Amino acid sequence: MLGTIEIRQGLYWIGMEDPDLRVFDDLFPTEHGTTYNAYLLKGTDKTVLIDTVEEKFVDEYMDKVRSLVDPATIDYIIVNHTEHDHSGSLAYLLQQAPQATVLCTTAAKNFLVNILRTPVKCQTVKDGDTIDLGGRTLRFVIAPFLHWPDTMFTKLEEDNILFSCDAFAAHYCETGHIFNDEVDDFTSARHFYFDCIFRPFKDKVLAAVEKIRHDVIDMICPSHGPIIRKEPWKVICQFEEWSKPTSQSKKIVLLFLSPHGSTEKMAHAVVRGATRDGLEVISYHINNLSAAELRNLMEEADALLFGIPTFNRDIAKPMWEVLAYLSTVRLKTNIAGVFGSYGWSGEACKMAEERLKGLGFKLVADSVRTTFTPTAEVLEQCEALGKAAADAVAARQ
Ligand code: FEO
What we know:
With 397 residues, the chain is α/β, with parallel strands linked by helices. It has two domains: 5-243, Ribonuclease Z/Hydroxyacylglutathione hydrolase-like (Metallo-beta-lactamase, Chain A, 4-Layer Sandwich); 251-391, Flavodoxin domain (Rossmann fold), CATH 3.40.50. Helices cover 33% and strands 23% of the residues. The protein has twelve helices and 24 strands. It has helices at 58-68, 84-87, 90-96, 106-116, 187-197, 202-212, 232-243, 262-274, 291-300, 317-325, 348-358, 376-395; strands spanning 5-8, 11-13, 16-18, 23-24, 28-29, 34-36, 39-42, 47-50, 76-78, 101-104, 122-124, 130-132, 137-142, 152-156, 161-165, 219-222, 251-256, 280-285, 303-307, 310-311, 314-315, 335-342, 362-363, 368-371. The chain has a seven-stranded mixed β-sheet. Helix 6 runs antiparallel to helix 7 (232-243) and helix 8 packs across helix 12 (376-395). The protein binds MU-OXO-diiron. Residues 81, 83, 85-86, 147, 166, 223-224 line the site of MU-OXO-diiron.
């Protein structure tokens, strides 16, 4: 186990390595493992802990704390974000440091009530608030949704060090090395991490970067992966670049499945109805697209139309996956429409309508459904659906 490491005078990494972790949050693959970074700062007057670690490492974490200070002398515990990988050892730490004051956002304070289920001595902070440690100053930058509503950054002003928690981080662990200039290039792991964690919050990333744009930052101390002491702004700019909108033109994206060709015929009619000057209308069979391509198209769309046949009284699995991707991206639209062919029961379109409404979409019309082969009348209804979607996009301009 890697011991404590002094990364600046009086500032120590007291994190844990987890190189064998292969899935994070039960959801995201972690091919390179991860680290849970936490820090201890000894000011002239005050001692501060910044974040804790996953609960399974609590004993090793507490040993590291004790090797540097008596926990009873800790003045502040900064909770930049309350997810379990950073707050998992907090309850144990507070038992050893009952006099310490937790510093966090108002949202984090509310979350801690329900996470710890025990009273906590808590002081909430606002954007720009500072605390003086005796010759060193900590300033708080509220950064909601990076990664939860509770999140903030902490800046050690005199040292130009940003404690960014999940932001500018990566699930990446090269055992025994905690700095980015000691390890292989892990940009692809960082980009994958961004896609998993931050893609739905791109606007929040841009807002947070704007808040720190004029800060001098010599080092980023994130909560996962190597500390960024080489080219920290390059990493911030990567997050910014990955968060920018990719397309300026107006676009309707139609995604369909069509095992017997009927829903595809309906898709062609929807496209005919939607087509007009100044609006790109593109239609894809979803099996021809990768997950990355599907998610990119969703983010570029000004309206999303779905051709969904019924399969065994349900939406077929590949289309359920497409509908699941909707909550993993930063959509710029809430305009949608649904159509599809079925044989005898036809539940899929209604299911999709409910899913879309649950995500806040507004349907441009009732879904167009037909048994088996669409008639000329049904194809006219499909054209009308396409036209309604184009009108809705135009109305947003
Ligand atoms: Fe690393 Fe959102 O927790």
